[in-house]
Amino acid sequence: MDKWMNSPWFIRIFSLLLALMIYVSVNIETQSNSTSRNTVGQTDVETVTDVPVVAYYDQENLVVSGIPQSVNVMLEGPKSIVTPTKLQRDFEVYVDLSKLPIGKHTVPVKYRNISEKLRVTIDPATITVTIDERVSKDFSVEVDFINKSQIADGYSPEQPIVKPNIVKVTGAKTLIDKVALVKARVDLKGVEETIERESKVTVYDKEGNVLSLDVEPSIVDITVPIKSPSKTVPLKIDRKGTLREGLSISKMEVIPSEVTIFGQKAKIDDIEFISGIEVDLSDITGNTTLQVDVPVPKGVKAVDPAKVTILIEVEQEKERTFGQVPIEVIGLNDAYKAEFIDPADGNIALTALGAQSVLNAIQLKDIEVYLNVSELGIGEHDVPIEVNGPQNVRWRLPQKEATIRITRNE
């Protein structure tokens, strides 16, 4: 080993290696220092967009207009400060209006919580604001119908009900003084029944321009009664069964005698009366009062009233005879004539059975006795005798048929 160390070649090689190590070490340190100096001294410019603007003023008593929602902030300075400032956005942009009087003012847009080492530029740098007194006033809400002409055929809106019908409008006094109308809208397109809607309240000036004001409540409930097409029709009472022997109806009255039906015009126009109410005569033993439901015909939405009262009065059955009542021939073609064979004179006596008060009111002109020959041809025919007369009367005939001869007119 000592021999190697004392060798001139060993010393030369060792010295060369040591020189190389010192060179590399110095070069690395120089590059590191150079990089560090470049980073610290580098300048950067960044723009932070859409930065909200905070306004300081008496919000309880004042209203301010002209404040932008956001501004752009340009940051210039060392990159090591600009970059985190942009990313964190923990600074504030604001305008201080707390000491300004009512009126119009041009004010600077300020900032805080940004390093003093940065140069800050705000766009816009100043803004013009208007400070006004904040006031509140109550207004009644009107309802504006839209598509009123497109409501279902025959239907019409009645007075709407708005809840609440008074709202509080708050804002700048100069705008409050311009309020002309406060409205909520309801769409009537295709409507054919009462509707309930929620509607936004909108404030207008006299020119019809919308005013930007706070409304409390901003949504109201609206009920619009819709008047349906209607028609008044009578009721037809159907009878079934038979009264007990010896009784007769002297009066049957429906209260009311007519009802109102509601529905689409095309469907109610063809309805002339309402049927389907039945009275079972076999249940009647004396004067009776019935409460019955009114049937709702197909296509009808409602009937008013939904119930009616039927008053029935009965008396002991009596008789009254009418002699020589002429028999009419109906349904005979003009090309033919009819001749009575039995009864030969074309007259018949008949007996009416009913309540005495009803019988006393019958006149001869109230009685129709006829033969219907509309389907008969030339020749002799036995035709049923039919009687038409006042209600609540039974008829007794001496014969059920009449014999006639039909011939052609000469």
TrEMBL record:
Pfam families: YbbR. InterPro entries: c-di-AMP_regulator, YbbR. The keyword Transmembrane applies. The chain crosses the membrane at residues 9-26. Keywords: Membrane, Transmembrane, Transmembrane helix. The keyword Transmembrane applies. PANTHER family: CDAA REGULATORY PROTEIN CDAR (PTHR37804). This is YbbR-like domain-containing protein. It comes from Anoxybacillus gonensis.
